[in-house]
Design goal:
The complex is a heterodimer of chains A (315) and B (248).
Chain A (H helix, E strand, L loop, with lengths): L1 E10 L2 E11 L4 E5 L6 H8 L7 E6 L2 E2 L5 H6 L1 E5 L10 H5 L1 H5 L4 H14 L17 H13 L5 E5 L7 H18 L2 E6 L2 H7 L2 E6 L2 E6 L1 H6 L4 H7 L4 H7 L3 H4 L1 E7 L8 E2 L4 H11 L3 E5 L5 E6 H8 L1
Parallel strand pairs in A: 3-8, 3-9, 6-7, 7-8, 12-13
Antiparallel strand pairs in A: 1-2, 1-4, 4-5, 9-10, 11-14, 13-14
Chain B lengths: L4 H16 L4 H5 L15 H30 L8 H11 L4 H12 L3 H25 L3 H10 L3 H34 L9 H10 L2 H32 L8
Classes of the chains: A alpha/beta (315), B mainly alpha (248).
Pfam family, one (chain A): ABC_tran
Family (chain A): Belongs to the ABC transporter superfamily.
Keywords (chain A): ATP-binding, CBS domain, Nucleotide-binding, Transport
């Protein structure tokens, strides 16, 4: 658990972070979102003491971080940034192994961990491990950056716009990976982004920041349904709020489950269990249909989503 | 190891020349016909070469230690205040000619090898310092940020990240410094240091072109051998730390 109590950071006269209180529960993904210069990165960098705070208290599991040794503190906090910051003179494997090396893990344990992480992030443990950062594409480099942050098996993950510089398709796929990894590992995560869609997708709770203050701290659904101010309303975009709400839920929660899985009819379009309701609606509009079958990972039809129910969710 | 072939060839030819020059009297009679003193004999060329190399090596070692430490110091948080001062000294120092440094060193330290060494260290500092600052300053700040964020201590960041990345640029600075000092050391002969400049000075004073040539040829070969040695070193460094290590 991370607690920020009355934390302020000034740069000279300017106040970058203004007396904020924020509690991030163990295992949750807290996304700090806001326009550039709102203090979200400053907040993140105070948590691993890359920046000292001017006043206030930051506690990790009840302990003031200023009491800990800064290096020991950071070794237990994975850190990934937008420009990756990979060490250009080291191979991918050595980059990922940096924290295990600093933690003095035995070489074999470290190498196994590196291989495991390469596989987890969809990189080839054979060929990619020996590459240098300049030989990677932007998406691959960012995967290595995330793998490196996870390598020491830290309790906390700090991510500063890790996908901000990627193209839309790569970003989308990395967001999916993040969700999958987070379901597996359950790390307490602080994630900074300026992209509200990314925030809605990844967050268990979102903290909207503006001019160094936290305007609203709530679940994605609550932020969409009850924005605290005009600023938040603008940020989430009034117009497609309904669709964004649908995007938060998957069809598996809403579908009418068949008692037994069936063979799907081959002609119609179908959904996967993990698809969002937004995709379900879009497909219904496209096919001009009331109902769509839902398939599980093995391709068997496990249920049906119908339009009437779906429309009630958005209300 | 084709990397090291060129410097080995240069060093071998330098040694061969040093040994064979005394036997080349007939060749020098062609440029300096009017005298029997065709070969410089006050010291053996081998002694002069050795003493010349020693001067350059000693000054380069001291210069590197001082300049790299100074460069590291002013890029740390504690020394950051001295950064403008030091980088100014580094660029102004380059505009003072080496002869002037030698001339100023004599009244302070007398004649001989000591003032020469002093002048060489002083003059050799500047290119190394400048390149140390450029090398350390040229590292992508995101790399340093993430190194620190990973939990490296400042000493680990310095030795595992900064110096390996800046190394090639620093090495290039040492190369410049050593090459300049090989030439400057020869001028040391005018203030009483024993170097390969001796035959040149003696030749100029006595109007003996053969002496001048012998000194100049050896200095030239020494400079070329050293330069190719550094070329190989820089390549080896780049090979160890990936092809484009200095970019980020």
């Amino acid at each position: 658990m991370i607690e920020l109590k009355g934390v302020t950071r000034r740069f000279g006269e300017a106040v970058a972070v203004d007396n904020i209180d924020l509690t991030i529960e163990t295992g949750e993904v807290c996304v700090l979102v806001g326009s550039s210069g709102c203090g979200k990165s400053t907040t993140l960098r105070m948590i691993n003491r890359l920046l000292p705070r001017t006043s206030g208290q930051i506690l990790v599991d009840g302990e003031d971080i200023n009491k800990a040794d800064p290096e020991a503190l950071r070794l237990n906090m994975g850190y990934a940034i937008q420009s990756t910051g990979l060490f250009p003179h080291w191979t991918v494997a050595r980059n990922i192994g940096v924290v295990p090396t600093l933690l003095k893990w035995p070489a074999q344990k470290r190498d196994e961990r590196v291989t495991e992480l390469l596989a987890l992030l969809g990189l080839d443990p054979e060929t990619d491990a020996r590459k240098y950062p300049h030989q990677l594409s932007g998406g691959q480099a960012q995967r290595v950056g995330v793998a490196r942050a996870l390598a020491g098996d830290p309790n906390i993950l700090l991510m500063d716009e890790p996908f901000g510089a990627l193209d839309a398709i790569t970003r989308e796929s990395l967001q999916q990976e993040m969700l999958r990894i987070q379901r597996q590992l359950n790390k307490t995560t602080v994630f900074v982004t300026h992209d509200i869609d990314e925030a809605l997708k990844l967050a268990s709770r979102i903290a909207v920041m503006d001019q160094g203050r936290i305007i609203q701290h709530d679940t994605p659904e609550a932020i969409l349904r009850r924005p605290a101010s005009a600023f938040v309303e603008n940020l989430i975009g009034k117009g497609d709020r309904g669709l964004k709400l649908l995007a938060l839920r998957t069809v598996s929660g809403l579908m009418e489950r068949h008692p037994e899985p069936r063979h799907p009819e081959p002609v119609t379009d179908s959904l996967n269990e993990s698809d969002s309701l937004r995709i379900a609606l879009s497909l219904m509009l496209w096919n001009n249909t009331e109902k769509l079958p839902v398939l599980d990972a093995s391709g068997a039809e496990v249920g049906i989503v119908n339009r009437e129910q779906l429309l009630k969710v958005g209300a | 190891m084709r990397l090291w072939l060129t410097p080995v060839i240069w060093i071998a030819s330098l040694c061969a020349l040093t040994a064979l020059l005394p036997a080349m009297a007939p060749l020098f009679s062609w440029v300096e016909g009017g005298t029997d003193n065709l070969i410089y004999t006050r010291d053996s060329f081998y002694t002069l070469l050795q003493s010349h190399i020693w001067l350059v090596l000693a000054s380069a070692t001291m210069g590197t230690l001082v300049a790299v430490s100074a460069g590291i110091f002013v890029t740390r948080p504690a020394g950051r205040d001295f950064m403008p001062l030091v980088s100014q000294i580094a660029s102004i120092g380059q505009t003072v000619p080496p002869v002037a440094v030698l001339a100023l060193a004599v009244p302070a330290m007398g004649f001989g090898e000591k003032p020469t060494l002093f002048a060489l260290v002083l003059y050799g500092l500047l290119p190394i310092l400048r390149n140390t600052l450029a090398g350390l300053g040229g590292i992508n700040p995101a790399v340093l940020d993430s190194a620190k964020g990973m939990g490296m201590s400042s000493v680990q960041v310095l030795f595992k990240v900064e110096l390996p990345l800046a190394g090639r640029v620093i090495l290039a600075g040492i190369r410049t410094s050593v090459t300049i000092n090989i030439a400057t050391a020869a001028i040391g002969s005018t203030i009483g240091a024993r170097t390969l400049g001796d035959p040149v000075i003696a030749g100029l004073v006595n109007g003996n072109t053969a002496y001048v040539l012998q000194g100049a040829i050896l200095i030239g070969f020494l400079a070329l051998a050293t330069d190719s040695l550094f070329e190989a070193l820089e390549r080896a460094w780049a090979r160890v730390f990936s092809a484009r290590a200095h970019k980020a």
